[in-house]
What does this fold into?
Amino acid sequence: MRILLAASEVAPFAKTGGLADVAGALPKALAKLGHDVRVVLPRYRMVDAAKHRLRPVLDSLPVPVAGRTEIAALWQGEIGPVPVSFVQHDGYYNREALYQAKDGDYPDNAERFAFFSRAVLELSRALEWIPDVYHCNDWQTGLIPTYLRTTLQGAREFQAAGVLFTIHNLGYQGLFGPEALAAANLGNELFNPFGIEFYGKVNLLKAGMVFADLINTVSRKYSQEIQTEEFGHGLEGVLRARAKDLHGILNGIDYDEWHPGRDSFIAARFSQDDLAGKAACKADLQRAFGLPERADVPLLAVISRLASQKGMDLVAETLDAMPDLDAQFVLLGTGDAALHQAFETARARHGSRIGLMLGFDVGLSHKIEAGADMFLMPSRYEPCGLNQMYSLAYGTVPIVRATGGLEDTIQPFDPATGEGNGFKFAGTTAEALLDTLRAAVALYRRPEEWRRLMRNGMACDFSWDRSAREYEALYQQIAARRTGKP
Ligand code: ADP
Ligand code: GLC
It folds into this structure.
């Protein structure tokens, strides 16, 4: 089949979170299944054109937006065998960051991603490559199905094109004032609860959910959770109304990028059968964070957006216990200023036990996965989560809250049977997390059992192949609906 995957970030070109990892890896797995896959993303300043050898393919693509026509240029690169198109428009995308400046979201985000969404459709016309399915991701692409089913409803070339809309995080909805309608070249007739209106605002995630043929989220558990008030962020009703079209497909991980046996970012390679290299990675990580190089302390780690979703306030609250646990803690992350402050305060108190890197650093994230003993993910909600799976691959034991994809991927270790791949707890308090940390550190002091737990994790297989087949089944279902053929 022809599949066009549109996303606002794609690894290795531009990344702020897990969406980029998924958009960079799933297309390769689909290509392996024999599909004709293409990927489209904006050409941000962050995209290194020289490194990725981008070539110009079209210097003038007219795109209607905000009541006028803006011109996009198209560039081309690839991820392995998969062609990747970059939509260039310097006014919109040649900026410091992807979505926000220091003082908040870019004020023209609705227009920037309306332009991107419409450009995806216009470029498929211009290149005469209309896919069977547009695979759209998150609010930034929510207008692709909207245009297909409204503005472009009569366009013959799009008649058979279907849309799968993937929700990676219901907490980010692309909410804008009613003026976003004009920015998106849409009429008031869509501004109602059955359309893209949401409590007086324009909601681009909802637009995607309403107009797509099928919807999915990135784990089975999260696809159920979001139909409840607790996890629905106000959209549970819309999701329940489409329950028959709503699926859950667990993300895979890209073992080309995340594999302790061939990772070029880490100090030493290792495997299930030969864990010696992991000790070298641990020492290297302790050095990188200026912590005492001790092999015997449990080294706890976090790599995360610093946001309330991720339960980082709970982590900050447990840090005073590090001396008692005789543990070390390292964190790589960036986000809420209050959380930056909370972690800085903890470091000021326990400098020999706590290391911080408040920034974004892909190389360091690999060193942490390789060198840490335990990885903390006490998320309040987690659509899928990738780091618990990366951790498993590197023999780093995940300690997670039982929610979403964390629930689906982590089974508590049972010393009696030797089964299980991590630690899991239910509460949303620092005490609940701390109790679990105590249990984990106690097990760490029983090396034989700990090694069993590490190896159980390393034996897990979360490769994309299985998930790609599940996506394939959804694409086929969509194509059958669109063409009326079973
Ligand atoms: P989310 O997409 O909600 O942030 P995921 O667990 O799906 O969570 O994916 C996060 C991805 O972003 C992982 O690849 C993780 O390693 C990476 N990441 C998060 N914060 C940082 C950071 N500060 N530096 C480098 N990589 C980061
Ligand atoms: C989102 C979610 C995360 C998920 C990622 C990729 O950012 O927060 O749980 O793993 O998307 O699907």
Q: What stands out?
A: The two ends are 15 Å apart (CA to CA).
